[in-house]
Amino acid sequence: MTGEGADSLFFQLRSPIFPLRFSLFDFPSSKLMHAPILNPSLLAGDHANLAASARGVAELGLPWLHCDIMDGHFVPNLSFGPETLAALRRAGVTLFFDTHLMLAEPHRYVEPFARAGANLISIHIEPDYDHAATLAQIRALGCQCGIVLNPGTPAAAVEQLVAHVDLVLVMTVQPGFGGQSFRRDMLPKLREIEAWRRERSLNFRLEVDGGIDLETGRECRAAGADSFVAGTSFFRATDPGALAAAFAQL
Ligand code: DX5
Ligand code: ZN
User: Fold this and answer.
1) What mean pLDDT is reported for the chain?
2) CA 78 to ligand 2 center in whole angstroms
């Protein structure tokens, strides 16, 4: 699955006037492009039985699983490797693996994760490597690609890339750990990126990650989000099925 006409649009410049119009609007859900997806984060699953946690997600009819990959450098924590994804595939898990690479050198790992069964691979904009070439490599490997921004990174940092991705992920916590509080100050950045998508007739998904529950999810939806990563709120929910149904109505 690859995006259309990526290379020919890559170096188009955009007027700096646009940003002024982006923060003035909240959009009723009927105008938003993609149906909402609740995307459970496996980091909050049972690390002694990750396949069972993944099957629990599938049994609720949820299509995606968010896989957090941490290297102890770009973020101060460690999580899973390519073998974890490959083992889940061998265990019969067929969910769409939304693979979030929190790595200082993601370009060195996109191929192992693609071969291990990732369906979408997201890379951060902050480290210094060839972002455009790595996004193109992810698509050449047959995966969808995504670009991720930390809370301290302005939307402008990815403006030249949004026409070349299938997903933009706006971190709503500083990455590295689950269970943190949602950062409401990320909502204007969501609106700005949503306005680019609408004004330029782009088709990427807009994802949020960190401190997402039904209340914060609703606020993000109003600002343009359509993919909601949820670790604690999903795996600690007394009724995850009811949570999934509520997110589907956003
Ligand atoms: C944090 C990860 C998130 C995290 C979300 O760096 O990228 O995906 O697992 O967990 P909650 O939903 O508990 O904030
Ligand atoms: Zn994540």
Assistant:
1) 91
2) 13
